[in-house]
Amino acid sequence: MKFILGKKIGMTQIFNKEGKVEPITLVEAGPATVTQVLTNEKNGYSSVQLGYGRKKLNSPQRGHLKDFVDKKGSGFAYLKEFRIDDESKFKKGDILDVAQFEMGERVSASAVMKGKGFQGVVKRWNFKGGPKTHGQKHTLRTPGSIGSAFPQRVFKGLKMAGRMGGKRKTVKNLKVVYIDKERNMVGLRGAVPGNTGSFVEVVKNGK
């Protein structure tokens, strides 16, 4: 299993070997540091915790990352655990970078979607809306009826207006089409969730 933390740079396009344009998302992936290795014997499960980015840490965070904090109290801005099968392959302080990935591999990318605030049903759920004419007034983007005669209540999970975005989302089966080891860049074919500069988790399942 291959995994790494990174930062979304943005979207661009490249030409493949056939001369066709491929839209890609550039991710500055790593270098990420192994900050903790959890074992079955001690923790009940096997995983590796990675650290990426820099920020000013509070006292509990500095205690947890005491081996990776500088004199100014700065440490890793982003921590994430990844489940593994064999913890013996990793040790505290190991550095992971884009060199572990290969061209053509399929990976999953996870990030927090852009927050879009409170939105209506047309934008949030792609509702068609009502007609513009024939006696209608102020109903172009309304949801319409939300209930029925029986039962006299609104069903849970009904698609209605509400807060949109700001949730964690995973896009699977993205193809690795570009790798720049010198700049720690990896290009994934397609779109990756999140704003420019947001943290991204890139995972390839399997060995």
Structural summary, described in words:
The chain is mainly β and 207 residues long. It has two domains: 152 residues, Beta Barrel (Elongation Factor Tu (Ef-tu), domain 3); 49 residues, Ribosomal protein L3, domain 3. The protein contains three helices and 14 strands. The protein has a six-stranded antiparallel barrel with strand order 1-2-13-12-9-14. A four-stranded antiparallel beta sheet has the order 7-4-3-8. Strands 5-6 form a two-stranded antiparallel ribbon. The chain is extended and about 70 Å long. Belongs to the universal ribosomal protein uL3 family. Part of the 50S ribosomal subunit. Forms a cluster with proteins L14 and L19. It comes from Candidatus Spechtbacteria bacterium RIFCSPLOWO2_01_FULL_43_12.
What's the total count of β strands?
14
Radius of gyration: 23 Å
- Series of H and E elements: EEEHEEHEEEEEHEEEE
Largest sheet: 6 strands, antiparallel, barrel
Biggest sheet strand order reads: 1-2-13-12-9-14
- Give start-end ranges of low-pLDDT stretches: none
**Cα-to-Cα separation, first versus last residue:** 5 Å
Which percent band covers the strand fraction?
Answer: 35-45%
Tally of separate domains: 2
CATH architectural arrangement of the largest domain: Beta Barrel
Query: According to CATH, what is the class of the largest domain?
Result: Mainly Beta
- Tell me the overall shape: extended
The number of helices is: 3
The CATH topology label of the largest domain is Elongation Factor Tu (Ef-tu), domain 3
Structural class: mainly beta
CATH level-4 homologous superfamily of the largest domain: Translation factors
Helical proportion, percent range:
under 10%
Function: One of the primary rRNA binding proteins, it binds directly near the 3'-end of the 23S rRNA, where it nucleates assembly of the 50S subunit.
GO molecular function, one term: structural constituent of ribosome
Pfam families: Ribosomal_L3 (PF00297)
Subunit structure: Part of the 50S ribosomal subunit. Forms a cluster with proteins L14 and L19.
